[in-house]
Amino acid sequence: MRVIIIGAGEVGSSIAASLADSHEVVVVDIDGERVDSLTYALDVLAIQGDGTSLSTLREAGVDEADMIIASTNNDETNLVACGTAKTVDDPFTIARVKAVDYLETWKETEQAFGVDFMVCTNLLTAEDIVRVVGLPSARDVDPFAGGAVQMAEFEVSPDSPVVDQTVREADRFDSLTFAAIIRNGDVEIPGGDTVIRAGDKAVVIGSPESVQGFAAEIAPSETPSGNEDLVIVGGSEIGYHTARLLEDRGLRPRLIERDPDRARELAEDLPNSVVMKHDATDAEFLAREHVDEADAVVAALESDEKNLLVSILAKQIGVSRTVAIVENTEYVDVFETVGVDVAVNPRNVTAEEITRFTRETTTENVSLIENDRAEVIEVEVDADSALVGRPIREAVADLPARFVIGAITRGQEYVVPRGDTVIEPGDHVVVFLDTEVLDEVTAKL
Predict the structure, then answer these.
(1) What is the tens place of the pLDDT at every residue in 164-217?
(2) What domains lie within the chain, and their CATH numbers?
(3) Phi and psi at residue 16, to the nearest 5°
């Protein structure tokens, strides 16, 4: 498949990296330095030019393109690029936007702007935040098999009850699979005797009930009660949509916004949220409003520096869990190193969603782990799959190492994968695997 990616920033580069091995990829960017950098870093054709220009698109081979992905940091540029491509031929077009208004307009006809599929960064980020705050100590949560399966990544704190337990001891749930242990940046496929250490990240796959149960085991003091006190700092678009989605779950979040006009607007649009007009860096105000008693504080201001300040302040006054939006990908590790529990990067969230969509011909769903070093994928297997018709212990012996079958769904039934389980055609299989063996494994699934 020939794919043209417009925009060689963090999102475009990430998508290009994930597609370069299996597709013919062309990347267009107006910045010559980005083009040069990508030329040396990836096996792609990189072109300097304006992605909204018909002549540039023709130079990139739009006449032969199967897919156009417009992923610059400007909504209007992305929409115009898709519309321009449609005047030449009929490639499948994907546009990245921030404004939810564009998404709502597109959904009215799903043909507006010449866009076949639209990805809204602000809404995706809010959805990611809501999934994470719903599980204690979770750093990442993704649904699979229509919600019948969950993948979650947990940070193991020094005081967690599972510290120094083996995986066999910690796994007390029938429909849960330990897919990986991430330790000091290394991804390990665990065995029953693998010992869980403080500071590890545990990736588990299972039914939502089992994942929730494991979350309670790993951090019993943070177990959700159903009436959590959640505080959102910042009435940005992401902050607003986070509050709205929490309201949809029956919660009543508190939202702090400094600007009086924006606070008034939010109060009108969020009937089940408590909107407070104040500066969230005022420690006396936070104490007076008992923010220290909150189950989680979400920093959703429009500045990485301010989000870091708010998160550190929240930790200092006693908030047990902080989630911060981090626009600069390079800052993610910094945030988590200084004590922010979860750093959510909108660009990573967007790149993952677009990558997931481009893989739909081979996989049903995709989640990227540890900066793309590993993946969780969902595949509907057919009669030709190497997994079908034999017990799992026999089938996996013919496949590359460094992958784990985490869950199976058969129609509406959840099937726990065990060594003697026989996978049938039509089953949905959720697999954790090292990115290095991705192509080899998926070719046989």
Answers:
(1) 999 999 988 889 999 999 998 889 999 999 999 999 999 999 999 999 999 988
(2) 2-115 (3.40.50.720), 126-222 (3.30.70.1450), 230-343 (3.40.50.720), 359-444 (3.30.70.1450)
(3) -60, -40
